Amino acid sequence: MINEHEILETMEMFSNQHLDIRTITMGISLMDCADGDIEVSCNKIYDKICRYAGRLVEVGEEISRKYNIPIIHKRISVTPVSIVAAACGSSDYTPFAKTLDRAAKACGVNFIGGFSALVHKGYTNADKNLIESIPEALAVTDFVCSSVNLASTRTGINMDAVRDMGRIIKATAERTADTGALGCAKLVVFANAPEDNPFMAGAFLGPGEPECVINVGISGPGVVKHALEKVKGADLGVVAETIKKAAFKITRVGELVANEASERLGVPFGIIDLSLAPTPAVGDSVARLLEEFGLEECGTWGTTAALAMLNDAVKKGGIMASSSVGGLSGAFIPVSEDEGMIAAAKTGGLKLEKLEAMTCVCSVGLDMIAVPGDTTAETISGIIADEMALGTFNNKTTAVRIIPVPGKSVGDEVEFGGLLGTAPIMAVNNKSCADFINRGGRIPAPIHSFKN
Amino acid sequence: MNDDKNTAVITVLGRDRVGIIAGVANLLAEYGINIINISQTIMDDLFTMIMLVELGDVELEKSDLSDKLSALGDKLGVKITIQHTGLFNAMHRI
Lengths: 452, 94
Description:
The complex is a heterodimer of chains A (about 450) and B (about 90). Chain A is of the alpha/beta class. Chain A is built from 16 helices and 13 strands. In chain A, strands 1, 2, 3, 4, 5, 6, 7, 8, 9, 10 and 13 form an 11-stranded mixed β-sheet that branches. The longest helix of chain A has 30 residues. Chain A starts with a helix and ends in a 9-residue tail after the last strand. Chain B has about 90 residues and is an alpha+beta fold. In chain B, a hairpin with a 2-residue loop joins strand 2 and strand 3. In chain B, helix 1 runs antiparallel to helix 2. At the A-B interface, helix 1, helix 3 and helix 10 of A face strand 1, strand 4 and helix 3 of B.
């Protein structure tokens, strides 16, 4: 018998602590949509996505009504387009992006991920074509997200691609300058990209994944913060235990929704991504949660330690709750999407270098960071290279989603609206790393990757 | 509350006033829904009612019951929520 306390606690989580299912993401393989004729290939893609995901939004809303749980996003991820497009004979892949955008709109989802390439060891011709098409593709579409995997622990870091992506990010910013470089908010580069991640902008369906799969991303920094408010002053062992319990409950909601969605859509359930994903809403912030540990402002000394513990305890609680944990699974620290991060970046207390340190112990990387528009392509590549090194050498996923906003400088702000939020322009160390970046080549895989 | 049964929990939170239980019970009767258990407490005028109901043939996901209940809540000045018991079992039971 469920008791009153449990019922009221659940109510409280959903009504006042912003617990929600952040996304139900349907992964769809496009492997069978390759064709020598680009138009035929695009038609196959459009038809297949609409056939598989036609009921996704409706089913999401049904589940939401049954349990009275907010399910914020319904999204689609697809096979990296560079693989599907390789045979098409054209070098401009923008038509594929337009097709994805059209399919996303027809299905009623709000993002579709997979305008992607996996180049951690080297480029195929198609990978090159895709990467060169990114600025235009993101400028002429609304819902398409793009990602490129530049490095992995098993292969090292493709520094040619790191160099090129600095240039591509700059070009994307210029091409979408009229919307505050919004294109860059839909573009992420990875080390060790997970193939089953349901969260944007980095979602794609990896080549090792099934035909069609349901992955669910959960959220709930507010729930964990609220749980911590009840153990003020307690030692950190108690704090870890409290986080684990909250994470367990959040994950179980995710599993319930994932199973139900999988059953209703007749598609296998892949993974639950148990990430603490903030939104710009007050009370839904990872930064404020870190401050609840006893920090005056996110970014001060102790932040990395608190984040490490938070991330670990969330995973431990979540893994007990579900046997299908995957994706990124950890705490997200996107600056523009987190009310507390925005506040700390504005006071200058939270700097890029501290964020980089934080990414050593959490699930993503430098995320939704706005920097001055005159930051050079080489400097952006340098920032990416450092982040790729953290991921590659520490055997974890890291990412960079950075936005060099044309015409803006430190002290300015850029507004993206909605869940993408508002970003204060952050200061960047501008001492040149151009000679390093322009060497190109590959940083070899770390010694500890040789495990066979 | 076992998983096989089509049951739900209705919670009513807000300021106490005449007609809350009557209002909810009447609406449920229209849908042929049986009330299994009611518990309520009042603390400092704050009314908390938890009701366990058997949904019978009503499928919450396809029914407008949830919308009707929250509209009734708005009329009575309280917050009324209905959730399938599967949620509570998932969250609070290993």
